[in-house]
Amino acid sequence: FNRSPDSRIYRTGDLARYRPDGELEPMGRVDDQVKIRGFRVRLKEIETTLRRQDNVAECVVISRDDGPIEGEPYIVAYLVPRQQPEPTISELRHFLKETLPEYMLPSAFVTLEALPLNPNGKVDRMALPKPEAVRPDLESDFVAPEGPIEAMLVEVWQEILGVAPIGTYDNFFDLGGHSLQVTQVMSRIHDSLNITPPVRLLFDHPTIVDLAFHITVGQAENMDQEELEALLAELEDLPDDI
Q1: Which domains does the chain have, with CATH numbers?
Q2: Does residue 165 have a cis bond before it (omega within 30 degrees)?
Q3: Pairing, β 74-81 against β 108-111
Q4: Distance between CA 74 and CA 142 in Å, rounded?
Q5: Could you read off the pLDDT of 149-173 as tens digits, one per residue?
Q6: Which of 47, 61, 98, 234 is most solvent-facing, going by the fewest CB within 10 Å?
Q7: pTM for the full model?
């Protein structure tokens, strides 16, 4: 019922219902559009792009709100590979990044033998499993942390990303990290080490081994000679290829 018949009505696409007290209760959307970190995202656009990947036979993309940050929605892509070996998370993310902006990249990818269907033959989205909080299949091998800074970073990443275990050569963004979580990581680094590295540091050096090295170098600027000598001794044990 429109109380102002001569006014213009805007169809928002939001779905809601009236509660017994007369208030409206939001129930989601009538389309596939969701809001992720303040951005409007059409999930079908992600699906269409992902289907173009050579080794993806079927896929469905949904938004979930049961991630490491309570109440914060995140994107999950479920896919059936065309053949083995199945595509790695790194390969899928790199493929999507060629077309989609960062905020439209799924935080998690789940590989299934087949998509669950309802009696009508449509994808049963309610039957899609929650992503496991374990290290996904990445291009990098797992390498355990060495030294207190790497160990601290692993602990911080695992808590913020809700994934474990995390290796020191794992890419932060391949693990599902996004720009808002970058600021959380840098805040935790500040609290732990009493330093304020630029947020850009994690974007430029998205692995723990690389990030730890540049943090350590930055710390050296504020050390006296004795502390610097101890730091240099520790740096000798770091890998040569970071």
Answers
A1: 31-127 (3.30.300.30), 147-235 (1.10.1200.10)
A2: yes
A3: parallel
A4: 25
A5: 999 999 999 999 988 999 999 999 9
A6: 98
A7: 0.69
